[in-house]
Model the fold of this input.
Amino acid sequence: MSDRVKITAGLALFVVLATFPIWRAIGAAKPAPPAPQLPAGGGQCVEDKEWMVANHMALLRQWRDAVVREGGKDYVSKTFGTRCEMSLSKTCMGCHTNRQAFCEQCHGYANVQLTCWNCHLESGGRKP
Done:
């Protein structure tokens, strides 16, 4: 075997091995997005579904700042014009009672750490 053949074979092997993770990721099946279990009563959320999916964490931070730092209590929906109490435990978890079937599905899929229950109690007043 000449050196030219060895070098070409070595370079080809290197390119295949170096790009293998890319080709493997392209061919991998992507998991289906979760379908979280919606509240049983089918009531109205504080904002519409699309807005909540995109902005729920910003809303919770806004509520935290308003309640803790400014003494706020009520939130008026931008979508529906309804008034509700700014409270994760009372407002959100009043409907979304099953953390595993609702919150953890999407947070796990998005690989986002769920830290709400480090401070807040689950429905029924128990720590997770």
About this structure: The mean pLDDT is 83.
